[in-house]
Amino acid sequence: MPKYLRIGVHQSNVSGYTSKAWCVRRTGSTIFLKWGAVEVEGAGKGRKVYWTRLPQEKTIRCRTAQRAQDYAKAAIAKRRNHRYEPLTGAIANRRRSASNGAEPKQALATILIVDIVGSTAKAAKLGDARWTKVMGHYYAAVRKELKSSRGKEVVTTGDGVLATFRAPAAGITCATAIQKAVRTLGLEIRVGLHAGEYTLSGGEMVGLAFHICTRVAAKARGGEVLVSSAVKELMKAQPAIGLKDHGMHRLKGVPERWRLYRVEG
Questions:
Q1: Under a CB-based contact definition with an 8 Å cutoff, are residues 87 and 7 in contact?
Q2: What is the pLDDT of residues 83-125, one digit of tens each?
Q3: Is the whole model's pTM more than 0.85, yes or no?
Q4: Taking Cα atoms as reference points, which of 60, 166, 165 lies closest to residue 178?
Q5: Chain-wide mean pLDDT for the chain?
Q6: What number of other Cβ atoms are within 10 A of residue 150's Cβ?
Q7: How buried is 160 (Cβ within 10 angstroms: 0-12 exposed, 13-18 middle, 19+ buried)?
Q8: Three-state DSSP class for 182?
Q9: Distance between CA atoms of 137 and 160, rounded to whole angstroms?
Q10: What are the residues whose beta carbons fall under 8 Å from the beta carbon of 166, sequence distance 6 or more?
Q11: Please, are residues 205 and 153 in contact by the beta-carbon 8 Å criterion?
């Protein structure tokens, strides 16, 4: 088992929504590095981590054990500064069944992205042990609300959660419920929702709809739930849910300007 194994926060872009893991292992004067994209399932002791594809590996020969030790310490400190958390246990290779062929799966749904505000500062203040415990409660609260709202968890990455809903109203209701639940843990979140077609390929969500949702979430401030105009259009038959005009916004990497709405109440 590697001496050091860490998983990073999510990386969100148009090609996927994944987490990245690093392994830094020293044997004498030699450093062994292994890194790549991973998928996280579960939380706390029940959490499992899988490589989404074959990881990259590199061997560095430092000539002396002291140089190798210094290199390992610096490598770990660097990743710790980039919001990496410690992992216990190894990362498994995902076994793909015959039904999981090369054909990607397409779907139309409301996409929800949740992100903790100021997680780096909170993690540094609490320390690894307490922060890991808080995150366990956080994911438990999120999953409870997802189940109540019939949401489907796609992946958890670092302190982020990506989920889908058949109906936009269910996604909004879930987002506000998650907000209230995690406040009891001393956490504040930002949430973004968008409705559109996405593709699941190799365990990752791809497509412009996903990309738009990540940008909508990025526009939200702490305690805000923002939705795109596509969600607003689908909510015309749901007057009970208040949506306040949040103005026109340019979403990085997305064509044209988008009108966003803030969930009220």
A1: yes
A2: 566 666 677 776 554 444 445 566 688 999 998 998 888 888 8
A3: no
A4: 165
A5: 78
A6: 11
A7: buried
A8: helix
A9: 14
A10: 109, 110, 150
A11: no
Q: 111: part of which helix (H) or strand (E)?
A: strand 105-116
pLDDT tens figures, 175-197 = 999 999 999 999 999 999 999 88
248: burial class by Cβ within 10 Å (0-12, 13-18, 19+)?
Answer: exposed
Q: How far is CA 216 from CA 20, 31, 72, in A?
A: 23, 41, 38
**What is the arithmetic mean of pLDDT over 23-41?**
78
The mean pLDDT of 134-154, rounded to a whole number, is: 90
Determine how many CB atoms are found less than 10 A away from the CB of residue 195: 25
Burial (CB count <10 Å: 0-12, 13-18, 19+), residue 174: buried
Residue 96 is given by DSSP the state P
DSSP classification of residue 166 = S
Domains of the chain from N-terminus onward? 4-93 (2.20.140), 105-264 (3.30.70.1230)
Determine the pLDDT at residue 262: 94
